[in-house]
Amino acid sequence: MLGTAAGGGLPQWNCGCAGCTTARRTGAARTQDCLAVSADGAAWYLVNASPDLRGQLLAAPELAPAPGSRETPLRGALLTSAELDHTLGLLTLREAAALTVHATLPVRYALHAGFPVGPLLAPYTKARWHTLTPGQAVELDGGLRAEPLALGDKRPRYAADLPGEGWEGRSDWVVGYRFTAAGSRSCAVYAPGLAAWTPAVEAAVTGADVVILDGTFSTDDELAGRTGGARTSRGMGHLAVRDSLPHLARLPGPRYLYTHLNNTNPLAHPGSPGTEAPARDLAAAGAAVAEDGMLIEL
Ligand code: MLT
Ligand code: MN
Ligand code: ZN
After folding, report:
1. What is the average pLDDT score of the chain?
2. Cβ(31)–Cβ(5) below 8 Å
């Protein structure tokens, strides 16, 4: 787990709330949502490229280049959305000799037309873009298999008014992944943006060893309560922890971890006042909050 915070991170640069202030004082920070995954421990793939990517890569010894060379263990990146907190880091990878990016069609479109990372990277590195289709697994280096799972039609704000037909309402603006490894029965599901608990989500989670899911908000009205605005968690494409937790409790078996925690979420601040009850609810369902730097071996 390279990073476990939602956009803005923890502390957020312009936020002086109790949680951000404590994080500033204690150093209990979270960087923005990003994962590295490998089937053989040698070939690694990023899942998302956060704005904090440079520091995240430097903090992970597994991702260091071979001594005396520029050979990186990173073989590419898979995107779960075109949101800025998942894609700004692609520009940080421009020093790479080559860069392979896997994304769904609407995400590729947004990264060409709205936030033109594709054209921006082209003069710097040999970027190769591959289109992912939900339900169709791709075979990656090191025996890694990634099956994209359509999770939602919420598009980034910068892509709200892009020209062209057919982008509205597509369920693959946001995806998750079901990862398996050749010659192994191990399975990990990664879904940092989960709009609703659908039968497809339920099927993907069933039989998984570890499920890492959307922990942006603790409750549907969390953000409205903090900011006085009207935006609900669900309206922003994030199923609140309180609303996914009953499903986890119903489906015991996998290890459940919540990630992409917003700085308003009390679960992002373990031990601070008011976090005891929600933490107890999590533990009762066999779930926990992911932490930056966590290494999960299956
Ligand atoms: C989200 O997860 O909903 C987005 O990343 C929000 C944002 O930071 O724009
Ligand atoms: Mn986000
Ligand atoms: Zn804050």
Report:
1. 95
2. yes
